[in-house]
Amino acid sequence: MARNSPAPQESFNDVLAWLDADREKAAVMYVQLRHDLAKIFQWNRCIDPEGLTDEVFDRVAKKVRYLIHTFEGDPRLFFYGVARNLIKEVPKKMRTQVSLEDVDLGAAPIKDSRNETAELRDDCLQLCLKELSSERRELILAYYSREKQAKIDHRTEMARQLGISVETLRVKAHRIRSKLEQCMERCLNSKSPRED
Predict the structure, then answer these.
(1) Burial (CB count <10 Å: 0-12, 13-18, 19+), residue 80
(2) Which of 179, 178, 155 is nearest to 168 (CA)?
């Protein structure tokens, strides 16, 4: 899911303050909310539950200063509403979504005669990955290389090795993914048959 630029750090702090005045309680709520949102996206068979969860937080963070003064009730309900709207948007964006897991740049894409769209997306993904610098390509492929708890542990280790926070790593990955999605969209639009 292509996203606009991530919300600034002070907006993230505002989100935590909106969730609860006690910073520790807010942090616990934040972690639980991320888990709940990812589950919602998984249940709705969305391709990138974690990326969509990031998108929900970005959208809320951009409005949080207004919401603090106008929204009444449990703030988590607002997050769930944003997630519900995002789920409705996902089918419109599916054309540019491709899994980055198990990508092998040296291997030829697997041909699937039943689904030319999947083949076209895979060709475009391979092309767009090759357009990235080797450092960015390695980062994004490593970022999406694991599943479940192993993914969390791996990303924590990646951040430690790079000497950055996990949140900063997430922002870096988001920026690279956004560029990939833009490249994918251009590639797919240039290769798709035109309708008359």
Answers:
(1) middle
(2) 155
Q: 11 is written with which tokens?
A: 């907006």
Residue 10 CA from chain centroid, whole number: 20
Do 81 and 88 meet the contact criterion of CB atoms below 8 Å apart? no
Query: Which pair of tokens denotes residue 167?
Result: 């949140």
pLDDT digits (tens, 9 = 90+) for 73-96: 899 999 999 999 988 887 655 544
Q: Which residue segment(s) compose the domain that 23 sits in?
A: 9-96
Do 88 and 133 share a structural domain?
no
What is the phi/psi pair of residue 163, to 5°? Answer: 75, 35
Give the chain's domain count: 2
Q: Is residue 108 part of a domain?
A: no
Q: Which class for 154: exposed (0-12), middle (13-18), buried (19 or more C-beta within 10 A)?
A: middle
CB 14 within 8 A of CB 65: yes
Q: Where are the alpha helices (DSSP H) in 107-147?
A: 116-131, 134-143
What local confidence, expressed as pLDDT, does residue 195 receive?
43
Q: How many CB atoms lie within 10 A of CB 156?
A: 13
- The answer to whether 58 and 6 have CB atoms below 8 angstroms apart is yes
Amino acid at 59: R
Question: If DSSP codes are grouped into helix, strand and coil, which group holds residue 21?
Answer: coil
Are 33 and 75 within 8 A, CB to CB?
A: no
Query: Which strand (E) or helix (H) includes residue 166?
Result: helix 166-191
One domain for residues 92 and 120: no
